[in-house]
Amino acid sequence: MARNAPSIDAFGGGGFRLDGIWHEGSLLILGDEARAWPVASLAELTLAALQPVLDAGRAEVEFLLLGVGARNAQPARAIRETLLAAGIGLEFMDTAAAARLYNVLTSEGRRLACALIAV
């Protein structure tokens, strides 16, 4: 895994199990740290909510893997353009797909941030 990135063991029911520990609600995983993320729906996603990813910058984050909820939908243009301007790629998909892909990508040593809206 990339650094000591946590592993997503399970998801659904309004949260995620990382390395055997249940986390209620949405999550932001950056490097080896997972933290509660106050975004309950794609409509609530703001640049402020992504500030830790932007602060980490291109040196630490190749791209943001964004789980947008139960169904795939495109994030707002301002989000996409700001990440692009910062040199951080964006991959978005439904949360279930993002949670599964996260484990694969971190096992490959990819430098990514993962923001998951709980379903």
How would you summarize this macromolecular structure in one to three sentences?
The chain is of the alpha/beta class. 27% of the residues lie in helices and 30% in strands. A five-stranded mixed sheet has the order 5-4-8-6-7, with helices on both faces.
Describe the model.
The protein has 119 residues and is α/β, with parallel strands linked by helices. The protein has a single domain, classed as 3-Layer(aba) Sandwich (Hypothetical Protein Mth938, Chain: A), CATH 3.40.1230.10. It is built from 3 helices and 8 strands. A 5-stranded mixed sheet has the order 5-4-8-6-7, with helices on both faces. A hairpin with a 2-residue loop joins strand 1 and strand 2. The radius of gyration is 13 Å and the shape is globular. The protein starts with 7 loop residues before the first strand and ends with a strand.
The outline comes out as globular
Q: Kindly, what is the distance between the CA atoms of the first and last residues, rounded to a whole number of angstroms?
A: 25 Å
The Cα radius of gyration reads 13 Å
- What letter string, H or E per element, gives the SSE order? EEEEEHEHEHE
Q: What fraction of the residues are assigned to beta strands by DSSP? A: 25-35%
Total tally of structural domains: 1
